[in-house]
Amino acid sequence: MDEIRGDETRSDARGGASGGAADSDGIRGAAAGTAAVALSVLDLVTVGQGRTATQALRTSVDIAKLTESRGFHRFWVAEHHSMPGVASSSPAVILAHIAAHTERIRLGSGGVMLPNHAPLVIAEQFGTLEAMAPGRIDLGLGRAPGTDGATAAALRRGDRLDEGAEDFPQQLGELVRFLDDDFPDGHPYRRIHAVPGPVQATSPGGVQSAHRPPVWLLGSSGFSARLAGTLGLPFAFAHHFSAQNTIPALDLYRESFRPSGVLDAPYALIGVSALAADDEREARRQVLTGALSMVRLRTGRPGLIPSPEEAEAYDFSPMEREFVDGWLADVIHGTADEVRGGLDDLARRTGADELMITANAHGGEARLRSYDLIADAYGLPAAR
Fold first, then answer.
1. What beta strand segments (E) does 24-85 contain?
2. What integer best gives the mean pLDDT of the chain?
């Protein structure tokens, strides 16, 4: 119905114009300390065995407050469903909670899975978030379901899972028009408005912020990379679970990029699994919990994040061991200096403009310690 076109991504209320204006609206993050690129956080609100979702959400608040204080650029959460160990099924709700406990760090979705929702609903949710935390909300969108096929069918109230993915450009165009309240005359949605939103500025006596959440496209393959480039939008790639596709996807994004009212040059961040600890053995113990959790997920046995003790004692089959070795090869872990070296090398190899770090472990203490150690390694500001 409304497939978005590159010339429609104007600078007005689009989350930033090209160059310096984009910087001021938070698309282009500034490197802090001695880091070569901006550092950000992807939090999955993981729930470990013996922990509750309430505790997991409190840990997410603690991580957001810590990383804001230490100078990280943004904090994103991702939509997942039907996974006991990941309590982030409702990104907008979580972001509202985080916004109430932070002041400066950018907050966003990494991402909201657009095919699972009506575009109007997302525009309303993120318009509300923008009203709560003006000028620091990002809207990252993915076209995957964020879950298994049966759950996706339940979310979409139908059996055609390919339909949402195939319609992604059309849904994206519709969402952007709701965000900007600019459906053309004669369109069936012309008199429908996402509120909070620009319509309030055109109402008698109305005043509306000039900002609206910038739209990011997320991906783990080439489809969204090419689309983001064609539309001149910022792009986030899921290196943390699709490392083999990272460089091809980023190359495709840059080759496809056309300047827009949003960006005059490509801007890409990558999600990366990284965990620092006080010594190598402890780092290995912590990341093994995430690896065992992934083994169970990939074999249809999703559950809570196991403890380090359970992960160490687990008897991996040869096939599982092969998977774990491959998985951990893409998780940067070790001492703070080792993690810094791994992150710097990854930034050089990929040319990423920003690294979004996700620290997966059983307990919140290990994750908080990891972000603190990484901040120390890069000379980021001391916690306040």
1. 38-43, 74-77
2. 90
